[in-house]
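Consider a protein example.
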Amino acid sequence: MSAGLSILLIVTYGLGLYFSLETHREVFSAVHHAETDEKEFPLGLALATLAGVTVLVAFVSEIFVESVQQASTALGLSSAFVGFIVVALVGGAAEMVSALSAARKDRLDLSVGIALGSAVQIALFVAPVLVLLSYVIGPTPMDLQFGRGVVAMMIIATMTGSMVTNTGRSAWFIGALVVIVYLIFAMTLYLLPPRVQ
């Protein structure tokens, strides 16, 4: 079931990319912002930079995972809290900075696109690829079976994201409410960790 769902999720992600980058590109481009006279980055230099940064990120990730494992054991944190809160905050720091920068420039479309795009990429691409790779290189296959509490949190997060982005406008109070929802999730996972089955 998990392998079949993973394949379908990856196909969905691919179709979403094709939709947004190819067939309906104009829907996703912000035409009301003036173009700048920035010079393009040479493709060869861009690819070399990407390769170099990828190696550095892999190295730093190993150190980060080791540190988080030791800290979570020492502090008595559940794996759910570490995964949903600590890793999500640290791992998504670059996206958060970009989204906040876009929001400060009154580019709400770009800010929301960065924030939601990252979540969609993890849910529809990264997690399913990890499930499929676990059949090949993992000691045991990974599945997509989650506890009821985690599923409820994902439903609430999805509904919150949908309600916040449907109007196309925002205010500081809406942002504060979204942060409160996240803090409720953090408190729940910290104080009521999921039961091990």
